[in-house]
Specification:
The protein has about 325 residues and is an alpha/beta fold. The protein has two domains: about 230 residues, Rossmann fold (3-Layer(aba) Sandwich), CATH 3.40.50; about 90 residues, Rossmann fold. About 45% of the residues lie in helices and about 15% in strands. It is built from 14 helices and ten strands. The strands form two sheets. It has a six-stranded mixed beta sheet with strand order 1-2-10-7-8-9, sandwiched between helices. A four-stranded parallel beta sheet has the order 5-4-3-6, sandwiched between helices. The protein is globular and about 55 Å long. The N and C termini lie far apart (about 45 Å). It binds pyridoxal-5'-phosphate.
């Protein structure tokens, strides 16, 4: 059953004030190439230039700064496909809070290194987000640490929503926005902000074909287990949780459409970002561009595409932009 959305624009505005000292307000840039191809102005939100390389810092910072003194003393723990862990580690370190990140074996090494570099402890457990969650639950029960999940949490959603406020401020004539969709923290916050500020905007979620958990759950009408698969969009991996409280309902109520892109389309979008836009983005950051280049989304007015992250293994990036036919779906390792 739907619960009323606890994340309104007031919570998102409050988060904007909370995180202002830590989080960059990232730039928006018009893409000449995409605007010419599509016949409408297309703007790129350069969120891969965010500190820690992704928008996840917004929610993590908001959540850490909302802890009580007692909670800060005991530390924070979270499960992550990499970028939430990095944002959480950064936010925790800024505030002198102990941080442990639990991840599955599917997480690329560069993401693990990025989290360790922020001073957090890393635990690699099992081969899915759900396996890693078991370790998080143990740390909460046995050590009294506070869990800060990557998406299904009001403070996280409000923090990610600050990106939506920036879109509305920078592009008052926006008609379509393409938002990466995994657990749905980003799209829930962005949609809540935009539907309040610019109610006519179409919010389109983009996921990868391989393991599109939220898409499958919305199709069926309830949270369920969706197998996790290797993909170039590694930050979009993982389920939405069987006991999802917020993002399933918010996505159902506020998101206008969800479309899926293939591995080849993601690789093409990474190449496009590099050669045409001079931007280095990870696979997950590229799915919005992939949706436009593939023709799967045909906007009819000013459009924003979020480049949500840039934390890609640079060897893998080099191979992709060199035109090599990279296939990460056969192994759990990157080359
Ligand atoms: C986490 C992440 C996403 C997806 O965000 P959700 O809130 O889980 O939907 C998209 N892009 C990047 C780079 C991410 O790290």
């Amino acid at each position: 059953m739907s619960r009323t959305n606890p994340i309104g624009v007031a919570e998102i505005e409050a988060a904007q004030g909370t995180i202002a000292g830590t989080v960059h307000r990232t730039r928006m840039e018009r893409s000449t190439d995409l605007s010419n191809r599509l016949g409408v102005p297309v703007h790129l939100k350069l969120e891969h230039h965010q500190r820690t390389g992704s928008f996840k810092l917004r929610g993590a910072t908001n959540a850490v700064l909302s802890l009580s003194d007692e909670e800060r003393k005991r530390g924070v723990v979270g499960v992550s496909t990499g970028n939430h862990g990095r944002g959480l580690a950064y936010a925790a370190r800024q505030n002198g809070v102990r941080c442990i990140v639990a991840m599955s074996e599917l997480v690329p090494q560069n993401k693990i290194d990025g989290i360790r570099a922020q001073g957090a402890e890393v635990r690699i457990i099992g081969c899915s987000q759900d396996d890693a969650q078991i370790e998080v639950d143990r740390l909460v029960a046995e050590e009294g640490m506070t869990m800060i999940p990557p998406f299904d949490h009001p403070g996280i959603i409000a923090g990610q929503g600050t990106l939506g406020l920036e879109l509305a401020e920078d592009l008052p004539d926006l008609t379509t926005v393409l938002v990466q969709l995994s657990g749905g923290g980003l799209i829930s916050g962005v949609a809540a902000a935009l539907k309040a500020r610019l109610p006519e905007v179409r919010v389109i979620g983009v996921s990868m074909e391989r393991g599109a958990a939220m898409f499958e759950c919305q199709r069926v009408g309830k949270p369920m287990i969706v197998p996790e698969l290797t993909t170039l969009a590694d930050s979009l991996g993982g389920g939405i949780g069987l006991d999802n409280e917020y993002t399933f309902a918010i996505t159902r109520d506020l998101v206008d459409d969800i479309i899926l892109v293939s591995e080849a389309e993601i690789a093409q979008a990474i190449r496009h970002a590099y050669w045409q836009e001079h931007q280095i983005i990870e696979g997950s950051g590229a799915v919005g561009i992939a949706a436009l280049l593939s023709g799967k989304v045909k906007p009819d007015g000013p459009t924003a595409v979020i480049l949500s992250g840039g934390n890609i293994d640079m060897n893998l990036h080099h191979r992709i932009i060199s035109g090599e036919d990279v296939d990460v779906t056969q192994t759990t390792e990157e080359g």
